[in-house]
Structures are given as C-alpha cells and as structure tokens.
Amino acid sequence: MEAVSLLVQAVDPADAKNANAAIGAGFAYGMAAIGPGIGIGYLVGKSVEAMARQPEAAGMVRTTMFLGIAFTEALALIGFVVFILLKFA
Amino acid sequence: MFALEFPPINALLRWKDLFPTFNKVAMIAVAAALIGSIIFLMAGSRDGTKAPRGVRNLAETIVEFIEDQIIMPTMGRAGLGWTPFMISLFVFIYLCNIPGIIPIIQMPATARIAIPLSLSLLVWVIFIGVGLKHQGIKYFTHLLWPPGVPTALKPLVGVIEFLSTIFIRPFSQTVRLMANMLAGHILLVTFALLTEALVQAETHKLFFIPLGIMPFLMLVFLTLFEVLVAFLQAYIFTILTGVYIGSSMEGHGDDHPVSDHAEPGHHAEPDRAYAH
Fold it and tell me: C or N: which end of chain A has fewer Cβ atoms within 10 Å?
C-alpha cells in the first residue's frame, strides 16, 4: 500500500527530473561495470592459471596482473565518475 | 520507507574549514607528509650496523618492498636511483588513503581530486623530463611512432600514442586513485546510514532492528576491504609511475630489435606492451 501511494505522489515535474537523473546514473554505472567485470575476471583467471603452471614466475605475473587490473578498472571508475556527475551535479 | 536520507555530496566531502583555506583534507595531507618524513628520519638515525628493530624494521621493509616489487619489475637496475621518490610517493598516498577507515577522521584525503591530480601532474612532468634527458628531442618522435610501425599507419598510430601518453596517462592515474577512494568512502557511508536507519526504525521495530545487523556486518567487512584498497591504490599509483618513467628512460627500444622482448629468462624486463 505504501508503495502505491508513493507512486501516485511522484508525478511532480521536479521529482520526475531527479528520478530520471537517478535512473540514468544507475544505468551509467551498471553498464560501465559489465565490461571491466568480464575483463578483470578473465585477466585474474588467466594469471592464476599462469601462476599455477609456473610458480617461479609468480612475482612477475602478479605485477603484470595488477597493472592490467589497473588499466581495466579505470573504465569502471570512469563510469562511477559519470554516475556521480549525473546524480549530484 | 526507512526514512533513509542520503546526505548531499558536499556533506560527505566538504568539511568545515579549520582556518580559512585550510580544511581537514589539507590537514590529513600535511599530517601524512609529516608522519612519513618522521618515520624515515627516525629510521635513518638508528645505527645501521645492528639488527634492525622497531621503526627501522618498518622502514627497511618499505624500502625492500619498493625496490623489489615496484622498481625492479618496471625500471630494472637503472631505476634504483628513483627509490627515494617512489618511497615518498607510496608512503604519502598510503597515509592519505588510510584515514578513510580511521574512526572519527573517516575521510581519505585522496577522495578529493586535488591530491591525485597534483601528484599525477608531477609524475607527468617527471616522465616527460626524464624522456627528454635520456633521449633528447628524439623522445617525442619515439613517443609518437614506436619503431617498427609501417609508414601507412603512422598518422593513426601517432594520434593514438600522443593522446594516450600525453592526456590519458595523467587523466587515468588521477581518476583511478580519486574514484577508488571516493567509491569506498561512499560505500562506507551508505552502509553506515542503512545500519542507522534500520536500528532507529520507528515502525516494525521487532523486524527492522535485528535486520540492522546485516548492513553492520557488511560495514565491518567493507572497512577491512578498504584497508586492502588503500594499500593497493598506493601500490598501483607507484607502479604506474615506475612504468611511465621506465618507458621514458629506455624509449621503445630503438637500439634493440623488437624480438628482444621475447628473449627467455629475461625476467627483470617487464612487458612493455602494458606501458602505454
């Protein structure tokens, strides 16, 4: 019941604008997280494979893995910045 | 529904000024610089011939970590002269990050863009300067066209390399540090507010108050996670600095053929493909 009354109240234009901004912000971050999620999963998985196969090279693989994660993660973080801009700016 | 009111973003990030133009973020940064310097000055004044104890032990661990994990894989032996710079960068960023989880302070100084931006601009100036020093004006042609690029592709590669080296490098370094710490900060705020709203619920108390334990557990878990993030971001910022300076020092290997990188047993050499 509460939810229905909330829906009825939310037709104020200013509220509608805020709501659209919030929806856009949510989508921006959600979409931005998909690619890097897949990328980091693949990257770490392959790195673990490499470390298991050749434990003596683990240090180098780990360093390179962190670098790769840093570059991949930047995309998700830019999405997060867009989220902040849409929601609060 | 729970009377959950998220505070405006400025309430989270902009604190009252202690003095005009000197807010708490600046105070954290100054404190971080002072604490870092004091630790290393104290460690330096100890007798180096005896077995290290206390502060000196800590400082030696940091130096060893920077040399083995950051400088050797990215710059090789030639980069060991950069150890003091890398140590100050790492310690400063770490000490700026860690107040994000210290009770009462609860604000990572790097969550505001000022500190990451000035640090990455410093790094930008340094890697271009190092490139000019080691390779002269040829640095810019190397930067635009790594050796081995076919002539037909030169305009395209030149534009991409120029953008990625001159603009994307400082931008991504800044945004990575700032957004990571800001995201952690906002996440902690969210779960703290959720816990508060559930514990202080006015209706359905029997249901909501025990439910409040769940966001609280998440808050504890995220606080521990932030310890890791604070370290990891300092590490990544420093190692990227190492990669950038290393790539300026050696250029794209004009003297060596490209096949040099595939040489087996060449472990000290990082994969330059990541050093874009």
Answer: N
Task: Please indicate if any CB of chain A lies within 8 Å of the CB of B265.
Answer: no
CB contact under 8 A, B179 and A88: no
Establish if A64 belongs to a structural domain. Answer: yes
CATH number at residue A64: 1.20.20.10
pLDDT digits over A45-74, tens only? 999 999 999 999 988 898 889 888 888 888
Q: Suggest the residue from B175, B229, B237, B269 to mutate for an interface test with chain A (most A CBs closer than 10 A).
A: B175
A9 inside domain: no
Task: For residue A74, tell me if it sits in a domain.
Answer: yes
| Residue A10 maps to a domain | no
Contacts of B1 in chain A (CB under 8 A): 2
Shortest CA gap A26–chain B (Å):
14
Our count of domains for chain A comes to 1
Global model pTM greater than 0.90 = no
pLDDT tens across B11-46, in order? 777 766 667 777 888 889 999 999 999 999 999 888
**C-beta atoms of A78 and B232 within 8 A:** no
Vertex B275 angle, CA B60 and A33, to 5°: 95
**Complex ipTM:** 0.71
